[in-house]
Amino acid sequence: MSSALCRAVLLLTLVSSSLAVVIKATKPRPLVVWHGLGDSHSSPGMLEFVSMIKDVHPGIFVHSVYIHEDLDDDRKAGFLGNVDEQVAFVSEQLAEIPELDDGFDAIGFSQGGQFLRAYVERYNSPPVNNLITFGSQHMGISDIPVCGRFDVICQIARRAAKGAVYGEWAQTNSVQAQYYRDPRNYERYMEANHFLTSINNERPASRNGTYIKNFGSLNKLVLVLFSQDKTVVPPETSWFGSEAIPEDDATSKTLYSAEGPQQERLSDERVIIPMRLQPLYLEDWIGLRQLDQRGDVIFETCEGEHMQIGDCWKPLVEKFAGGHM
């Protein structure tokens, strides 16, 4: 091969390599989406949402998380299954997708948001950059969501959870029971619950430092609350708020008033402990406080009932998803 030809080949190789770097640098960061209760990974609504995201960020790679590829089975898995096993399965799923190797942004709808948080804390490989959760039950729920009249699977799961919510079967098979946190039965919750007590690092003897490190590695945590949410009880759980444990009511009222009018979302009988007064925050059990003190916890509100997103998603996706890698 002549020296001129060698130089030409070398130049072409350098140009190709530089072009590949430029293309990668300008490509939108991939996005992972985890659907909510009663939905599936490729339902018409999810496919439409993914399509709208691609309109906002042309060229973006979007993966919709599944527990089962079959849509009906995937929907059922939102009601019945072991959440710890589901999150572990998803971690393996995401690790096998080459497009996600350098990290991704993530959007979780309802319970999908707290499951993505569990992924961040426990696995986070590949890592999450920005996490956006819509109406997610980060501090659990104090009532099981009501089912549609003809939703048989939901009704079966709800009856099982309500009948023995802290029984062994419910805590390993009923998805909603695994994040049911009853303030009137808090000791039993701490004894029986496996999933929520774990991702919130609630047990002093078994707190996991990896959770703190991984969660604190997020760039931004965007917490979205629905202003008229009646499905998630209390709705403030979406902002890491929870109902006060009854014996703490008097203290909670005083502390809550000191938090300021912007946090006042009390009903007639409920006392809500906001995020910055939670022991989880004050003692930084999961790294939430360090995120917040960096200015990286973003509180947002969507007007309407649970998962009535409308156009509320768009400015959040524009700002917190699809950034250049």
From TrEMBL:
Residues making up the signal peptide according to the UniProt record: 1-20
Record key words, sorted: Disulfide bond, Glycoprotein, Hydrolase, Signal
One function term, GO molecular function aspect: palmitoyl-(protein) hydrolase activity
Xref: Pfam families: Palm_thioest (PF02089)
InterPro entries, sorted: AB_hydrolase_fold, Palm_thioest
Primary enzyme class: hydrolase
SUPFAM superfamilies tied to this protein: alpha/beta-Hydrolases
The keyword Signal appears for this protein: yes
Superkingdom to which the source organism belongs: Eukaryota
The UniProt record lists the keyword Glycoprotein: yes
This enzyme's EC code(s): 3.1.2.22
Coiled coil: none
Family: Belongs to the palmitoyl-protein thioesterase family.
Name of the protein in its database record: Palmitoyl-protein thioesterase 1
Species of origin: Candolleomyces eurysporus
Lineage: Eukaryota, Fungi, Dikarya, Basidiomycota, Agaricomycotina
